Fold this sequence. Notes:
This protein has three helices and 27 strands. The protein is mostly beta strands. The two termini are 42 Å apart. The model is unreliable at 1-30 (pLDDT under 50). Strands 3, 6, 8, 9, 10, 12, 14 and 15 form an eight-stranded antiparallel beta sheet that branches. Strand 8 (109-114) and strand 9 form a beta hairpin.
Amino acid sequence: MDTNSHRTAVIFLLAAAIGGGALAGRTALPIQSSTAAPVHVTEGGSYGWPVKPFDEQHPVRGSFGDPRSVFRGAPTAAGLLHSQCACSYHQGIDISAPDGTAVYAVRDGVVRTVTPDWVEVDSGGGSAFQYWHIGAAVEAGDHVQARRDVVGHILKGSKHVHLTELHDGRAVNPLAPGHIGPYRDATTPAVGEITFRSSDTGAELLPEYVHGSVELVAAASDAPAIPVPGQWNRLPVTPAKLTFRITSFPAGDVAVPETAAMDVTRTLPDTSDMWHTYARGTHMNMVQMATHRYWYNPGVYLFKLTPSLWNTRQLHDGVYRLTVTAWDTAGNHSSSSQVFQVHNRTGWLGR
Length: 351
């Protein structure tokens, strides 16, 4: 999904959620972007791909830490903001491959778990791998060798194998340097709209008048490192890391130094609650709401820059620039900025 489409989707969701109002006709203060030159990183990795050819990169249609969301409510902005949700972080990567494709062990090990749709192999030393959306070709207790033994075949309708890598029971990012390989990524994540809210499900605030405690929200997305075939083609994934800083404007003095808002470069956040990282309005590609899944529709990824409301009283009243940078595991990154004004002094507009 291109940046303009992403911005339009985010603006629509937020405008609809608060009924238009002041947001519908406003013109934002300048948003300035900068894009770093792509970093062309090739990593041999400590293990190969689970489908043939093992030493050739395959399309990844779902990234580590992507939102996985099934909403109970109606397919409306209010449903996205307020309805109950079976929501979680994606604990691995989705590797595109045709149904029926043989899936091989990526490391030697012992099969510990076999279910109707996934298999876990214990590789020792706290390392284990899970292969999801496959019909098992092994039994618990079997010893398997990497690249030689088939653990299963991709189930009909799945069109991918999900690979989870575990270290001491904790999911880690297979796309981190030194893990799966070869892996080369020359795409650059993009930051879209940067907004301010009164609360997680509250109204969007004008950047010209920010006060009290607010939620800082940034839209961001990335493209798969290589094109994904079929219905997942051109659908976005999430960046691996977001950072932000706040500087005075136009002087540029640092008010809040570079701070990590989210980072799944290597592991998931400590809390399992997806809404610790993502802001309401977020949904996965081809979102499911109630009993219907909306095929082909791209996801919207909105990130909280702080896990709880941010107190603007940390700053003196004045004009500032909020700059957000999105990164992938290869180090590619780009930034976008939003100018905003803090007004907390007593008596401002009758406050």
